[in-house]
Amino acid sequence: MSDITRAEVCVAACADLFAGAGETLASPMGLIPSLGAKLARLTTEPDLLLSDGEAYLLTPESTVEGWLPYRKVFDVVAHGRRHVVMGANQVDRFGNQNISAIGDHAKPTRQLLGFRGAPGNTINHRTSYWVPRHSPRVLVDAVDVISGVGYDHAVGPFHDVHRVVTNLAVLDFDTPDHSMRVVSVHPGVSIDEVQKQTSFPLVVQDVTETRLPTDEELELIRTRLDPNGKRDKEVPS
Amino acid sequence: MRDKRMTADEVVGEIKDGMTVGIGGWGSRRKPMALVKAILRSDVKDLTVVTYGGPDVGLLCAAGKVRKLVYGFISLDSIPYDPWFKRARETGAIEVLELDEGMFQTGLRAAAHRLPFLPIRAGLGSDVLKYAPELKTVRSPYDDGEELVAMPALKLDVALVHLNRADRHGNAQYLGPDPYFDDLFCLAADRRYVSCEQIVETFDGPPQTLLLNRMMVDGVVEAPGGAGFTSCVPDYDRDEALQREYAEAAADLEKWPGFHERFLG
User: Could you tell me which SMART domains the record lists for this protein (chain B) (predicted)?
Assistant: First the structure.
């Protein structure tokens, strides 16, 4: 299949976040991570559990297979069988994330959602981030408010910030000091471009190109998961 | 058995200046808006509001009712940010205790169990503790020795919740997919008030939907449409058009008085 879009590359990169997850609750926030989780469920990770964003666990055929109201989601968070993909108004060099406020928390220049579940998620189970517009305003040297906990503030036995998928690249923290590293750049993106759009120096070594979705994956994305092409609004090509 | 029926204004008559009021629901879902409206009509002030916040927060902030807000997030769901809440924060108009949403539940549970605190991992390493220095940690007395957050009880003077059905005695039922934390709000409070879409003699549906029993409730208000423009499924979905109108007026101080007057009716 041809004319593979950037959005489709991002969906496949989000699907790859769940590699090896098994019977784990995938909690993707935002369209592209949701498509990624569903794609993983339909291909390499058939054991993944997916919620409808309300209170039900659904099969790919939209059959209810479980009940998971918020109170039970909190139980799963503490129990740890969950991989959340959160958004981020800011994410920094060591994987701290901010969805609370820009500026001084006492009187912010811009109030955001609040801490939400970010502190609990990041201290309890695997967490990844999705950034639809990779820019120096989002990839900052240090976040204004630590909502999700990064490696330089990590405590306890279960902290595990896995990856950051953006519209330009896939990044992780697999370095000696857990500072952010470029894993792969999306086809058509240069390493220089990724660095230019990031406020801090990235670790760059053995960078590959993000894989293209397979024909099977493209078919699923285009005909089954997102036939109306909403993905292209979140990540224009 | 006691008949606990009362009006929304009678409920608000029980709320005194400076009290801590817990509001049930979640975001823009099953909020007790008829009871919130009654607060807006009243003279009560300086409230500490404890909520998984939706438009209840913006409306109360707009009316100057809030001294302090305890929350994990404020969102209208289909509209991410509430303009009135943003304004209240960005002008420093309210004091806040901003928590992780699991810490919030744990605080309610500690209050419900009459405990001074309960341990939780959430909060460690994050800035929750930095901006709330009153929150302490505790070390496990067992061999692991792990340090945990000692989440203090979030004790409420009053809980306000909205369910689908109730009887006159205070037993109450949710019919949607999620009970949210309305039972916990009631257990954490001294005075507990439930509004409902309809008061019934007997309940239809599985007994697991009977979220509140009459030990947990002091007053019942019949308020059809009482969740306002927030969702109260299966009785009704969120009124997205009215919510957009709310958010647009909230973002524009010239439009606000007109909306507020219409909204209070």
Answer: CoA_trans
CB contact under 8 A, B74 and A114: yes
User: Is A108 at the interface with chain B, CB within 8 A?
Assistant: yes
Contact at CB, B72 and A78, closer than 8 angstroms? no
Domain that holds residue A10: 6-234
Q: Is B102 in Cβ contact with A77 (below 8 Å)?
A: yes
Domains parsed from chain B with CATH numbers: 8-112+155-256 (3.40.1080.10)
DSSP chain A: -----HHHHHHHHHHHHTTT--S-EEEE-SHHHHHHHHHHHHTT-TT-EEB-SSSEEE-TT--EEEE--HHHHHHHHHH--EEEEE--SEEETT--EE-SEES-TTS-SEE-S-STTHHHHHHHSEEEEEESS--TTTEESS-SS-SB--GGG--SS--EEEEEEESSEEEE--STT---EEEEE-TT--HHHHHHT-SSPPEEEEEEEPPPPPHHHHHIIIIII-TT-THHHHS--
Instruction: Kindly give, in sequence order, each residue whose CB lies less than 8 Å from that of residue A129, ignoring residues fewer than 6 positions away.
Output: A85, A86, A87, A88, A91, A95, A97, A148, A161, A163, A164, A165
Q: Confidence band (pLDDT; 50, 70, 90) for A237? A: confident
Q: What pLDDT sits at residue A1?
A: 55
The share of chain B scoring above pLDDT 70, in percent, equals 100
CATH number at A107 reads 3.40.1080.10
The residue among A72, A74, A115 with the most chain B CBs within 10 A of its CB, best to mutate, is A115
- The answer as to whether A1 is a domain residue is no
pTM (2 d.p.): 0.97
Indicate the number of domains in chain A. Answer: 1
- Closest partner residue to A70 (CB to CB) among B86, B89, B180 is B180
Distance from CA of B201 to the nearest CA of A (A): 28
Q: Which of B126, B139, B174, B231 to mutate to test the interface with A (most CBs of A within 10 A)?
A: B126
Q: Shortest CB distance from A111 goes to which of B86, B121, B122? A: B86
Comparing CB atoms, the residue among B105, B121, B177 nearest residue A156 is B121
Beta pairing partners, B159: B22, B192
